[in-house]
Amino acid sequence: MPSGIDSYRVSAKYYDGAYSSMKDPVDASFYVELAKASAGPVLEIGCGTGRVLIPTARAGIEILGVDNSAPMLDILKEKLAREDSHVRHKASLHSGDMREFHLNRQFPLVTMPFRPMQHMYTVEDQVKALTSAAAHVAADGQLAFDVFYPKFDRLALHIGEEQLEAEWSPAPGTMIRRYYRKDAIDQINQNFTLTFFFRTLRDGELVSEEAETLKMSFYTYPHLQALFLLAGLEPVAEYGSFGKAPLHNNSEEMIFLLRRAS
Fold first, then answer.
1. Is the pTM of this model over 0.90?
2. CB neighbour list of residue 205: distance below 8 Å, 6 or more residues apart
3. Cβ–Cβ contacts within 10 Å for residue 29, how many?
4. 126 and 35 in one domain?
5. Is 5 a domain residue?
6. Measuring CA to CA, which of 85, 170, 192, 240 is 20 to 30 A from 125?
7. CA triplet 115, 104, 238: central angle to 5 degrees?
């Protein structure tokens, strides 16, 4: 969740196409099941274009989505307008920065799906984001979020090289390809910078190209544990996959369920 209301100005247009073309996004079903178990209402921080929010609303769970990207929220509003009325009535949206928004209400479940925490680049911002989320968790509620498990032997590989990540066809004769290039890595501050390229081809000919740069933080397990202490949170469960496998050295994800510390 980069700062600024125009964040993801380019990526928002291609976001749903790119992720619908990739392997089954099992994280969405993980968060929908958590929402069902909580019975709602749910607060989703970093709701984007509604990849998790809309299936949650379709499941009959009241959900409020927060995001600071106007382009992402605009797409989500358009998608909700095409849903049945019972789905629209379950969903509400709020524009806000995850570090400092205040809704003056608490929820049995607060979620941050698909790594919004990795767009917090300083310890100060990381603590603010978790503290703000914790303030919206009910006394017996939970906060759930995920980050990727960093593979340190891979992080510095392929710097400066473009790699094809996804391709999809939005219309006959048209193909969109998303490439990414890892531009730099800062191992002291634990972040790296990527540039995404979106190339549109018609009948095999390149007709347009757009690019957008993104920075992402990465976390170690002890770093996260320290952040939880600073934000007044304590773990309830932790997983290494969305299938709830134990967290271990070969995990791809770090997924946490937390509660407010007693």
1. yes
2. none
3. 13
4. yes
5. no
6. 240
7. 30
